[in-house]
Amino acid sequence: MDSDHQSRQHHGAVTLGRAAPAGRSAVYIAGFSHKNPIPAACRIGPLVESGCVLGTDPATGQLAEGIEAQCHHMLDNLRRIVEAAGGNTGDVVKVTVWMKDRTQRPALNAPWLAMFPDPATRPARHAIHAPELDMGKLIECVFTAYIA
What is the C-alpha to C-alpha distance for residues 64 and 57, in angstroms, rounded to an integer? Predict the structure, then answer.
């Protein structure tokens, strides 16, 4: 190590980390927002990663009542987010779902099968038991999409 580094002396500006990659863009949709200053998703090149997608009704911005309505709105919000990123549901690679009660998976499977009817092209899905979901949330998800 050179003497400047050994003595912890630096000359000029010190950069921590990297600058944001060129082409990174935040994705927002009407009627859906987070309480914190984060977008619904972020896209870099063909890769789209979502933030937490909830079962909120875009007309009211409020969490829907009941597991069936939350599942419907969550998947509709997923669709709207991936479309706002320039893709469609055929570009979704994986969905990770957190459920307060995993025995309610049939409420998720109905709109899931409507959105992804072809078993040969359906994205991967993982459901995690999350009894700690709060504020009336019964389900939430994140997704990864690849928009070629």
Answer: 6
